Amino acid sequence: MAASGSERVAVEKCKGINGLDKVVLREPRGSTAEVYLYGAHVTSWTNDHGEELLFVSSKAMFKPPKAIRGGIPVCFPQFGSHGSLEQHGFARNRFWSIDTDPPPFPTNSKSFIDLILKPSEEDMQKWPHSYEFRLRVALGTGGDLMLTSRIRNTNADGKPFSFTFAYHTYFSVSDISEVRVEGLETLDYLDNLQNKERSTEQGDALTFESEVDKIYLGTPTKIAILDHEKKRTFVLRKDGLPDAVVWNPWDKKAKTMADFGDDEYKHMLCVEAAVVGKPITLKPGEEWKGRLELSAVPSSYCSGQLDPQKVLQNS
Ligand code: BG6
């Protein structure tokens, strides 16, 4: 029988806010994801009940060259202010293309899109390197959202380059003061609110009662965000991404951000799979891969699964 309506289309290219090109992914049980070509920016991920799982600010601008506030900005070739480039690099405010002929990459999903970014001449003046950045965004059959980045050094001058990176994921939460993050306790972190000073996290799971902006180093491959009120747990599984940034601007900083509502900090939390502590260096012809898999499960989730000894990443 012929598919009726757009619901059955696994991958649909269409226009989003302000006429920007976007791609909608759908999987048969009903989950969806949306990716803007501007920034290769995932702006929506819903479960099979149609509930939005990512936070996007009601004040997000969707106006280049401003990055979209919320969803999953891609930070490359620089995370934050850890270098001489603009904050979080430039990949999040470039127009990406659909990669029609990507190098083979296995997937079980029918609902995915491959995007590619190559430097413009203007970019080369800021960061004089030639690269191919391929991003695959895929929805798994259970509604998991999977992002795989492949970055290749295509420099013809024989020079290596180094970069830092993050999937700057904004999760939607019911109430930040009811949220717990498991998997980062007892780890070392750089505190962006204390001049990147290095400290060690104490105690149990992280909870939130004020601004936080920390880069946890050498983190497990699995991190969980438990939202008690929603009875939902987000599980992040990551590969090639040893660090994790935790950010919430809280009330004062929120008020200084033009594209963020004053009270919206209550309903979001960024937990960002990243490479910050030890930048990646690629020689010409070399490729790096960084993979993030997100699932949202009911909170019967057993926290014992997060035994760090079992999930420690070789980094
Ligand atoms: C986080 C950084 O990843 O992103 C914070 O650790 C920063 O320091 C935040 O404030 C938001 O950055 P931006 O550039 O999107 O406003």
TrEMBL record:
Its EC number is 5.1.3.15. Keywords: Isomerase. It catalyses: alpha-D-glucose 6-phosphate = beta-D-glucose 6-phosphate. It holds the Pfam family Aldose_epim. The keyword Aminoacyl-tRNA synthetase does not apply. GO terms for cellular component: cytoplasm. Substrate binds at residues 69, 87, 92. InterPro entries: Aldose_1/G6P_1-epimerase, G6P_1-epimerase, Gal_mutarotase_sf_dom, GH-type_carb-bd. GO terms for biological process: carbohydrate metabolic process. It is an enzyme of class 5 (isomerase). Belongs to the glucose-6-phosphate 1-epimerase family. This is glucose-6-phosphate 1-epimerase.
